[in-house]
Write a structure and sequence with these properties.
Layout lengths: L1 H17 L2 H19 L8 H12 L5 H6 E3 L8 H12 L2 H28 L16 H5 L2 H19 L5 H16 L3 H21 L6 H11 L5 H7 L13 H10 L6 H20 L3 E3 L3 H14 L12 H13 L1 E3 L4 H39 L8 E6 L7 H7 L5 H6 L2 E2 L11 E3 L17 H9 L11 H4 L2 E5 L13 E7 L2 E6 L3
Parallel strand pairs: 4-5, 4-7
Antiparallel strand pairs: 1-6, 2-3, 7-9, 8-9
Helix pairs in contact: 2-6, 2-17, 3-5, 5-6, 6-8, 6-16, 8-9, 8-10, 9-10, 9-11, 10-15, 13-16, 14-17, 15-16
């Protein structure tokens, strides 16, 4: 036995030595990146559970009498249908929670492989530098729950890679491929279409400058390849209810600073900035030593990105973070333009060790926080077992909030689990016409938020119930129009605010569930 092992040991060691360290690091990073998603039933991203509840309504449409009575699905060519088209079919053959996990896994894989695809397309060989994208995977935009948009960012990076690889191909093939990509991006998010246009436009601007800025038939064909795939976008948008929100625009200087912070922000600013600070020092050192180099196309891309970021409003077509969401996309795409050119193997090993270590610290921290938040989600799911199916649930904020700021966003839409678990009408479900395909039926529209506003506080509810002069708010007649009240962010042992109208039935970290007593 020992002789056989001894005979095979050299070949095993040689095989191990042949394993590319970059490939090994990639798979280790993928496992680490996916771990937080796989550890929880519902990823505690601020808006995600709200979107997931809509996926459930779509999946069971025609098979749930209560949800059919509350909601309707008005299909339209909205520029954010990615989840709506992908998740419900998966939910019908599994469940909506697992389908949501699969969507997030696909989004993550697109985001982390996009820079690798760009780098390969530019240089026709793989390089380990694009693995830096893993360090920025968990960011403020993702934690907000903008998963359709981030899916579009990933597809757009692959689209840029395809554009570069097909640059010398037949122009009709380039138009066909780019058209497919543009349409896919439209149904992810309108901003993703713009990001793709900036990327391929920057590349062609650099290529035109490199060719001596000549005007010839090749340049005209390239312009046709740039313009023709984008032609369907405006007609599609004008056909969409989203076009009615075109005047809803707001610009903010503070938003520019906040957007830069979303690139690195997770749950603890000191840890985020500390890790990224150390990574930044290593990056600057690599630039100074000539180990880190960027493709020349990075310069026009960066300049156009800066101008776009500064010019874009914070609110665009009624959607917030219109400018903030761009910062992370620009950073990850720029990573794809970089290379590590270190002849010393020890430098490459040190790069991978630092990158994997820093990334794993971030993945671990996010995973630990998600497990904590998932426990609260499970507490709420347990509380919902006391709620009869078809109930109408109103959401309010506590007057005295005790929840940690890092937890509030993740818990803000927890009540939407009531749609999935108890076929309930929930006041905070996204039902804004022009933004989602799910709307509330007219007979219930006056009981929910249809304008993307904020829930009332408990004191606002109590004042409204005692006032004869109603303010036209959806919560004014809450005692008659709703069956249950969810109060968020308050203390678990908080005193019942109105013992004559409310009966506490369940509580957990950051929420309390009350039954509304009827006369």
């Amino acid at each position: 036995m020992s002789t056989t092992v001894a005979q095979h040991r050299p070949s095993i060691l040689r095989a191990f030595a042949r394993v590319d360290l970059g490939v090994a690091a990639f798979f280790v990073l993928v496992i680490g990146a996916l771990a937080p998603v796989l550890l929880v039933r519902v990823a505690p991203l601020a808006d995600f559970v709200n979107h997931l509840s809509r996926m459930h309504v779509i999946a069971v449409a025609g098979h749930d009498q209560w949800l059919d009575a509350f909601y309707r699905i008005d299909w339209a060519v909205l520029p954010n249908l990615a989840m709506d088209l992908v998740v419900p079919p998966l939910a019908r053959i599994s469940n909506v929670y697992f389908a949501g996990q699969l969507f997030l896994i696909g989004m993550i894989l697109l985001l982390v492989t996009g820079p690798i695809a760009i780098q390969y397309a530019l240089n026709r060989k793989l390089n380990i530098f694009p693995l830096v994208g893993f360090l920025f995977l968990y960011n403020g935009v993702l934690l907000t729950g903008l998963v359709n948009y981030l899916t579009g960012v990933g597809i757009g990076m692959w689209g840029l890679a395809a554009w570069i690889l097909l640059r010398e191909a037949n122009w009709s093939l380039r138009i066909a491929v780019s058209t497919v990509i543009v349409l896919a991006l439209y149904f992810c998010h309108l901003s993703a279409v713009g990001l793709y246009g900036i990327a391929i436009g920057s590349y062609e601007l650099w290529a035109w400058n490199e060719s001596g800025r000549k005007l010839n038939w090749k340049v005209l064909r390239t312009l046709a390849c740039l313009i023709i795939p984008a032609l369907p976008i405006l007609p599609l948008l004008m056909m969409s209810p989203t076009w009615g929100l075109a005047q809803d625009i707001e610009w903010s200087s503070q938003s520019k600073i906040d957007g830069l912070m979303t690139v690195v922000r997770t749950y603890e600013d000191s840890l985020d900035l500390g890790l990224l600070g150390l990574a930044g020092v290593a990056f600057v050192w690599g630039l100074q030593r000539g180990y880190v180099k960027f493709h020349p196309v990075a310069l026009p891309y960066l300049l156009i990105a800066i101008v776009t970021y500064m010019a874009l409003p914070n609110v665009l077509f009624g959607s917030y973070m219109g400018d903030q969401r761009l910062a992370i996309a620009f950073v990850i795409t720029l990573i794809g333009f970089g290379q590590l050119q270190a002849p010393d193997r020890l430098v490459r090993i040190a790069f991978l060790v630092l990158l994997v270590s820093f990334s794993m610290i971030r993945f671990t921290y996010v995973g630990v926080h998600w497990v904590h938040l998932a426990r609260i989600y499970e507490q709420f799911r347990e509380a919902l077992t006391t709620v009869p199916r078809g109930s109408k649930i109103l959401v309010a904020y506590a007057d005295e909030e005790v929840s940690e700021d890092a937890d509030k966003d993740a818990l803000s839409h927890t009540a939407c689990l009531g749609i999935i678990e108890r076929s309930s009408l929930v006041s905070t479900a996204f039902t804004v016409k022009g933004k989602q395909v799910m709307t509330v039926r007219p007979e219930y529209a006056g009981r929910v938020d249809t304008e993307d506003g904020f829930p009332p506080t408990v004191s606002q509810l109590l004042v409204g119930s005692e006032s004869e002069d109603k303010g036209g708010n959806y919560w004014d007649d809450w005692e008659e129009n709703h069956d249950y009240l969810v109060v968020l962010y308050g203390a678990e042992d908080a005193v019942t605010p109105d013992a004559d109208a409310l009966e506490a039935v369940a509580s957990g970290d950051g929420f309390k569930l009350y039954k509304i007593l009827k006369d």
